[in-house]
Amino acid sequence: QVQLVESGGGLVQTWGSLRLSCTASGRAFRNYNAGWFRQAPGKEREFVAGISWSGDSTDYVDSVSGRFTISRDNAKNMMFLQMNDLYVEDTAVYYCAASDSFYVERGANEYGYWGQGTQVTVSS
Predict the structure, then answer these.
(1) Using CA atoms, how far apart are residues 84 and 16, in angstroms rounded to an integer?
(2) pLDDT score recorded for residue 27
(3) Which end of the chain is more exposed for a tag (fewer CB within 10 A), N or C?
């Protein structure tokens, strides 16, 4: 199994940037496809971005495409989410997750391993 810990959240102004990190321990992170999800108050958890185990394939929800970039460094057992041009609507708790699936999945139920989340707050 793999354990995941997010970091890098915080408070930023509109149009600002943040870089989230996810550090994996336990089983080697390269064995998993992975992704970032977010959950705003009163809303369901939603897919943000996903990345294949090798990093060769990525997927983004339309609302963040062109602003966010997902990447990973398997040698360091880490994954990242670079978030630029942040909007107030991006405010949420952000979670990293790992999946045993062969594909880069968008459904939260395809991910069996989750971090505890990190808060991102974008102020106007």
Answers:
(1) 6
(2) 84
(3) C
Q: What are the backbone dihedrals phi and psi of residue 60, each rounded to the nearest 5 degrees, phi first?
A: -135, 145
The answer to whether residues 19 and 9 touch, using CB atoms and an 8 Å cutoff, is no
pLDDT tens digits for 64-94? Answer: 999 999 999 999 999 999 999 999 999 999 9
CB 82 within 8 A of CB 73: no
Q: 2-34: per-residue pLDDT in tens?
A: 999 999 999 999 999 999 999 999 988 999 999
Specify the pLDDT at position 29: 92
Q: Is the dihedral of CA 12, 34, 23, 118 positive or negative?
A: positive
